[in-house]
């Protein structure tokens, strides 16, 4: 039997993509046939239920906007006949087309059924202690200097479940879309972070970033016509884009800071107590001491956040890619092109 722990973010992403509804049915059928079971730490139940209504509203609003624009185009360019057909499809009470909210609610209901039918396990004090130890040691998922306590509880719950419930022939899978906290940094996102590698092996316990991959790797995918997890890729949210911008700014600034460190070491730049009141060209190689102290503290914070080993040095190609990404993402959020200030 395959026993899968499916991270909250996977369920929420699938809830935002109700075209995946057939996959929910397949999972329920596989579970009914005792081919799989779902490992569900209580915290996943709590997180999903806490976000359930928000996801439904977001999805319904997104689809309603798309349908509204589509109807406007048909009305403007399709003529009266097509407009009447469109009205029968979307506006009539007896229309076979479900409302966006109804579709989203069905997906959420299916997920709720799956997780509540799974093997729900409480969060123990031992799990909390191990998660706290990870936090103090800045081990994944705490390596990004953010509050990842719930993520740590989930991975610790997975590890404890395997140690206490593993039977001969059982296979385990940890499935997440949260590659920034759980996957190898700056590498193959299909591999776990080195801090978490001890929880996984080549056979008994595997790490995946999609349910489809887990079923396929463990020879269960052929049992059902699984739809590709990325069948309908949702548009990234403003907060996702802002997070990416923040990381790019941190990395680019840090690289420039390290260049300044090197110039100070070789004497091309000099630290002074106070910048002289002279035109810029005459003081461009001088750095005021208190500003430099602040920069050192900021650099240390960036190192704690991402891990010093992931912060370069970068090739010319990587440097160009980072700046290009920063410019593009800032443009998406309203800045002018080529806005590269850090």
What does this 3D model show about the protein?
There is one protein chain. The protein is α/β, with parallel strands linked by helices. The chain has two domains: 2-223, 5'-nuclease (Rossmann fold, 3-Layer(aba) Sandwich), CATH 3.40.50.1010; 239-332, no CATH class. Helices cover 56% and strands 8% of the residues. The chain has twelve helices and seven strands. The chain has helices at 8-15, 21-32, 42-77, 79-90, 100-117, 125-137, 149-165, 179-182, 211-217, 238-265, 289-306, 316-332; strands at 2-6, 36-41, 119-121, 171-175, 205-208, 270-272, 286-288. Strands 3-2-1-4-5 form a five-stranded parallel beta sheet, sandwiched between helices. A two-stranded parallel ribbon has the order 6-7. α8 (179-182) links the parallel β4 and β5. The longest helix is centred in the N-terminal third of the chain and has 36 residues, at 42-77. It is flat. 24% of the residues are buried. The model has no long low-confidence stretch (mean pLDDT 85).
In short:
The chain has 342 residues and is an alpha/beta fold. The protein contains twelve helices and seven strands. It is flat, with a radius of gyration of 25 Å.
CATH class designation of the largest domain: Alpha Beta
The total of helices stands at: 12
Which structural class do you get from the secondary structure elements? alpha/beta
At CATH's second level, what is the architecture of the largest domain?
A: 3-Layer(aba) Sandwich
What is the CA-atom radius of gyration, in angstroms? 25 Å
Strand order, sheet with most strands: 3-2-1-4-5
* Coarse shape: flat
Count of individual domains: 2
Intertermini distance: 51 Å
Beta-strand residue fraction: 5-15%
Low-confidence stretches: none
What is the strand tally? 7
Average pLDDT over all residues: 85
For CATH, the homologous superfamily of the largest domain is named as 5'-nuclease
Secondary structure: helix percent: 55-70%
């Amino acid at each position: 039997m395959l026993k899968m722990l499916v991270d909250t973010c996977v369920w929420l992403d699938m809830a935002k993509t109700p075209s995946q509804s057939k996959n929910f049915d397949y999972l329920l059928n596989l579970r009914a046939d005792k081919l799989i079971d779902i490992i569900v730490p209580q915290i996943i139940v709590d997180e999903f239920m806490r976000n359930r209504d928000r996801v439904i509203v977001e999805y319904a609003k997104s689809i309603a906007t798309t349908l509204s624009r589509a109807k406007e185009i048909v009305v403007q360019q399709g003529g009266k006949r097509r407009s009447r057909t469109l009205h029968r499809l979307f506006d009539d009470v007896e229309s076979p087309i479900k409302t966006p909210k109804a579709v989203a609610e069905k997906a959420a209901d299916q997920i709720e059924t799956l997780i509540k039918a799974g093997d729900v396990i409480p969060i123990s004090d031992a799990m909390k202690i191990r998660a706290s130890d990870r936090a103090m040691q800045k081990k994944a998922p705490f390596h990004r200097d953010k509050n990842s306590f719930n993520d740590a509880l989930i991975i610790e719950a997975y590890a404890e479940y395997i140690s206490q419930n593993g039977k001969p022939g059982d296979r385990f899978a940890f499935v997440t879309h949260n590659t920034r906290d759980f996957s190898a940094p700056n590498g193959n996102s299909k591999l776990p972070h080195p801090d978490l590698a001890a929880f996984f092996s080549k056979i008994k316990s595997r790490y995946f970033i999609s349910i489809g991959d887990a079923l396929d790797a463990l020879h269960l995918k052929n049992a059902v016509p699984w739809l590709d997890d990325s069948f309908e890729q949702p548009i990234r949210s403003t907060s996702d884009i802002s997070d990416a911008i923040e990381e790019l700014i941190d990395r680019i600034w840090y690289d420039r800071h390290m260049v300044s460190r090197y110039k100070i070491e070789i004497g091309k730049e000099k630290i002074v107590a106070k910048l002289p009141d002279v035109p810029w060209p005459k003081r461009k190689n001088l750095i005021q001491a208190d500003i430099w102290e602040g920069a050192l503290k900021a650099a240390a914070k960036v190192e704690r956040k991402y891990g010093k080993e992931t912060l370069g040095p970068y090739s010319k190609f990587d440097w160009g890619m980072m700046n290009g990404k920063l410019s593009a993402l800032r443009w998406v959020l309203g800045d002018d092109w080529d806005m590269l200030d850090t």
